[in-house]
């Protein structure tokens, strides 16, 4: 009868205990990096946050102890991600509409879906290299070389696959009954898409796109030789055609400076970048969970 | 999908409406084709820019490690070797860690909300920009590991991998920060594939008396293997192309060394370092290196996609 009870010393039970603790150990290690990174950024970056940080230009490294602010980089990040969004959102949503609504699983749509996945796997620095060859070195944009515009284009290449994928998947989730109903009351295909399916899928598409923008805002590699960096305020439209700073490149440049003042500025920029990206991520996560709950009801 | 199209085709359309419909369809068609155009554009542009260097050095470029803009001699062996070694070694550490975490999240060792918190922590880690991880690596991680590296060299210095005096920035640090970056990818894909394994399989295994971990090792993991493999390959592609954090911590030295404790180079860090100031045939050589990196990551990515298609779960 004894054999019916749980026996601690049985080799299978010992082995199970061992592997369970191993798995718990893995999970503990896996959550450590986020905790450490975020804590250090909150402590080291949070200490640098002053009103002047948001209004001043950064001082060139070296000659004085005061590093200045990050205003041009902050505005630059906003400008460059806006350019990237203006390019990639219409293209991506349009392409996604074709894949989800018009294509019928033929070789062309298979090829494009494959291409989207491949493009998503292209290293981000290659996007920078490509834009450098296409735009920066040819001076095709009214003779300007390094520019915020070129940086935005490089980022848009990275955003494009994300936008297409979320649109494609969001539209596929829309039930076909809605399309039949629309057809039934005499709507044409484009009215159905613009008035029925796209609005229905809006929330999931918007969530994906916003996450894509947040991801692009932190990208550095495509910017370091397309947008380069600038110490000066962005004042007008024509600044788009000149070198433009961004938070990401500022962190890269100033982290490698030997001066303490610049390093501190890099921490402050990281603080702002990480807080905004994490806020967007957590918020969209909560929104997604909320949507799922309301759907079930 | 097809049914919906034919339904709309049966509908009679007139004049302007028909035209608008067609214009709309063709616009979206053109926009989706842009993906292919951009992709081919990238491949062609990088290839043609590297042509000069390719015709001059040929495949020797891949096996020599001289990188001398003054003498106009270029070879990317150190960078290619660095790319492969850092990405493969970091993957080797990440796989058990990530799969272990994924098992923790999908099994019920602890209440659901704890698992959900662990899951979101790991996923949020993926949202931290690479350049921020690089900053953290320079100022927090490097001092933390300094003593450990000295110890490693002292006691394991006879192994070629640890044979040099630990440098402030070195390949091993790059590998560690890559593990941090790959962990979310491997974990989330492994978790998804584990979740897709049908409950029936687990119940059947428990029914014939297998213990929990016997079930995991003999039933669940084999069933999820293709998904996990694809995730691993995607992570490999990501590791090879990863630029910022690696560039900031690897030390950027073109001198070849077996030791992981000495500074190294990867293709992407070479590009990040030199592209801004390069001119003449150096630019073409950098494009050549970029082309090699692109081919490497394309092959890995396409193989991953093929794997997913070929072995996707058929339950």
From TrEMBL, chain B:
The keyword Cell membrane appears for this protein: yes
GO biological process: phosphate ion transport
PROSITE patterns recorded: ABC_TM1 (PS50928)
Main subcellular localisation: membrane
Keyword Metal-binding: no
Keywords for the protein's UniProt record, in alphabetical order: Cell membrane, Membrane, Phosphate transport, Transmembrane, Transmembrane helix, Transport
InterPro entries: MetI-like, MetI-like_sf, Phosphate_PstC, Phosphate_Transport_Permease
Membrane topology: Multi-pass membrane protein
Pfam families listed in its UniProt record: BPD_transp_1
Membrane spanning residue stretches: 28-51, 79-105, 117-138, 170-190, 216-236, 285-308
Domain ABC transmembrane type-1 as annotated: residue spans: 80-304
Subcellular location as annotated: Cell membrane
Entry similarity comment: Belongs to the binding-protein-dependent transport system permease family. CysTW subfamily.
Function: Part of the binding-protein-dependent transport system for phosphate; probably responsible for the translocation of the substrate across the membrane.
PANTHER family assigned to the protein according to its UniProt record, in alphabetical order: PHOSPHATE TRANSPORT SYSTEM PERMEASE PROTEIN PST, PHOSPHATE TRANSPORT SYSTEM PERMEASE PROTEIN PSTC
Protein name as annotated: Phosphate transport system permease protein
Native source organism of the sequence: Prochlorococcus marinus str. MIT 9314
């Amino acid at each position: 009868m004894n054999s019916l009870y749980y026996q601690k010393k049985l080799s299978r039970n010992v082995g199970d205990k061992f592997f369970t603790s191993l798995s718990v150990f893995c999970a503990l290690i896996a959550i450590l990096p986020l905790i450490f990174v975020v804590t250090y950024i909150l402590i080291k970056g949070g200490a640098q946050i002053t009103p002047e940080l948001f209004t001043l230009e950064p001082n060139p490294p070296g000659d004085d102890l005061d590093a200045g602010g990050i205003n041009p980089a902050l505005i630059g990040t906003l400008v460059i991600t806006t350019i990237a969004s203006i390019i990639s959102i219409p293209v991506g949503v349009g392409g996604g509409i074709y894949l989800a609504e018009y294509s019928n699983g033929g070789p062309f749509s298979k090829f494009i879906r494959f291409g989207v996945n491949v493009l998503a796997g292209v290293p981000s620095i290659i996007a920078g290299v490509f834009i450098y060859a296409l735009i920066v070195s040819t001076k095709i944009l009214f003779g300007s070389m390094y520019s915020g515009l070129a940086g935005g284009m490089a980022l848009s290449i990275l955003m494009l696959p994300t936008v297409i994928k979320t649109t494609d998947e969001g539209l596929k989730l829309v039930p076909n009954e809605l399309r039949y109903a629309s057809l039934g009351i005499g709507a044409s295909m484009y009215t159905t898409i613009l008035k029925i399916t796209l609005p229905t899928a809006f929330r999931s598409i918007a969530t994906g796109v916003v996450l894509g923008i947040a991801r692009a805002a932190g990208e550095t590699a495509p910017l370091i030789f397309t947008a380069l960096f600038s110490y000066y305020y962005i004042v007008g439209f024509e600044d788009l055609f000149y070198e433009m700073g961004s938070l990401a490149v500022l962190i890269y440049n100033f982290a490698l400076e030997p001066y303490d003042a610049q390093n501190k500025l890099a921490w402050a920029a990281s603080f702002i970048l990480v807080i905004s990206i994490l806020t967007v991520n957590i918020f969209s996560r909560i929104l997604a969970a909320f949507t799922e709950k309301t759907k079930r009801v | 999908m097809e049914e919906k199209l034919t339904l709309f085709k049966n509908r009679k359309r007139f004049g302007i409406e028909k035209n608008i419909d067609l214009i709309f369809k063709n616009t979206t068609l053109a926009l989706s084709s842009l993906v292919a155009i951009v992709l081919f554009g990238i491949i062609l542009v990088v290839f043609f820019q590297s042509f000069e260097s390719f015709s001059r050095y040929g495949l020797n470029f891949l096996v020599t490690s001289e990188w001398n803009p003054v003498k106009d001699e270029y070879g990317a062996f150190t960078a290619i070797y660095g790319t492969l070694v850092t990405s493969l070694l970091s993957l080797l550490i990440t796989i058990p860690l990530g799969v272990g975490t994924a098992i923790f999240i999908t099994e019920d060792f602890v209440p659901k909300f704890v698992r959900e918190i662990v899951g979101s922590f790991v996923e949020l880690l993926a949202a931290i920009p690479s350049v921020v991880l690089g900053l953290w690596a320079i100022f927090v991680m490097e001092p933390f590991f300094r003593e450990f590296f000295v110890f490693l060299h002292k006691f394991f210095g006879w192994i070629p991998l640890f044979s040099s005096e630990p440098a402030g920035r070195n390949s091993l640090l790059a590998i560690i920060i890559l593990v941090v970056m790959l962990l979310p990818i491997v974990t989330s894909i492994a978790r998804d594939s584990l979740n897709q394994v049908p409950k029936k399989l687990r119940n059947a295994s428990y029914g014939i008396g297998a213990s929990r971990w016997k079930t995991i090792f003999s039933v669940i993991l084999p069933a999820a293997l293709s998904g996990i493999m694809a995730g691993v390959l995607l992570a490999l592609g990501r590791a090879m192309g990863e630029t910022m954090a690696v560039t900031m911590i690897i030390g950027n030295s073109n001198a070849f060394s077996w030791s992981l404790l000495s500074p190294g180079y990867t293709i992407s860090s070479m590009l990040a370092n030199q592209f801004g100031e390069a001119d003449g045939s150096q630019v073409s050589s950098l494009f050549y290196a970029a082309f090699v990196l692109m081919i490497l990551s394309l092959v890995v990515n396409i193989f991953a996609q093929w794997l997913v298609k070929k072995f996707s779960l058929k339950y």
